[in-house]
Write a structure and sequence with these properties.
This protein has about 190 residues and is α+β, with helices and mostly antiparallel strands. It is about 15% helix and about 45% strand. The chain has helices at about 1-15, 25-30, 135, 180-190, and strands spanning about 20, 35-40, 50, 60, 70-75, 75-85, 95-110, 120, 130-135, 145-160, 170-180. Strands 1, 2, 3, 4, 5, 6, 7, 8, 9, 10 and 11 form an 11-stranded antiparallel β-sheet that branches. The relative contact order is 0.26. The model is unreliable at about 1-15 and about 185-190 (pLDDT under 50).
Length: about 190
């Protein structure tokens, strides 16, 4: 019962604050409250418009174009391709949906191009989507961590490339998608 009380107190305090975005996995982990579950992409999944990872998370591409409609798991990494306006290969966006609402998630994202405008968005605080440019967030480098601790539960995030200085597509790889599992707290407390 102490776990539930502490969690509810943490959530009520969080609701008075804005969502916080992190570029360091350890700092993000230190800010989370609930148990963390990590999707490490161990099993291969062939490219498809919608795929389901081992833990039940789905990744769904929208508006597929061209021959390179990448959205699959290979070599222990999630690999996908998004395009910006004027390009012709991949998906306009990829939306990741959790099986249950979460308060926080973090993901290691690699191979971001400086010129394609790859972004991540989600409604972390109930006030509409917040958009983060991944190249800038990573400190003007192609590899890095993106994490968020919201102030209310959310169920999805989207990766897209709505602009960029060069027309084209970004072939992106990601690993270790981690998230707070709110269900584990309540299940563990009553067992």
């Amino acid at each position: 019962m102490k776990t539930i009380t502490a969690l509810l107190l943490a959530f009520s305090c969080a609701n008075t604050l804005a969502a916080t975005i992190y570029n360091d996995r350890n700092n993000w982990l230190n800010a989370t409250v609930a148990p963390i579950v990590t999707e490490s992409f161990d099993n291969q999944i062939l490219d498809a418009t919608m795929i389901t990872f081992d833990g039940g998370i789905t990744a769904t591409g929208s508006n597929p174009m061209g021959a390179n409609q990448d959205n699959g798991v290979f070599n222990a990494q999630w690999e996908f391709r998004i395009y910006n306006p004027g390009a012709d290969n991949g998906f306009a966006s990829i939306t990741v949906t959790f099986p249950l609402p979460v308060m926080a998630f973090g993901i290691d994202i690699n191979s971001i191009s400086s010129s394609r405008g790859a972004k991540i968005s989600g409604d972390w605080d109930g006030n509409g989507d917040q958009v983060t440019d991944l190249w800038t967030h990573h400190g003007a480098t192609s590899n890095g961590f993106f994490g968020v601790v919201g102030n209310q539960p959310f169920s999805e995030f989207t990766i897209f490339a709505a602009d960029g200085s060069t027309v084209g597509n970004d072939f992106i790889t990601a690993d270790d998608l981690s998230y707070e599992d709110l269900d584990l707290i309540f299940t563990d407390d009553f067992e």
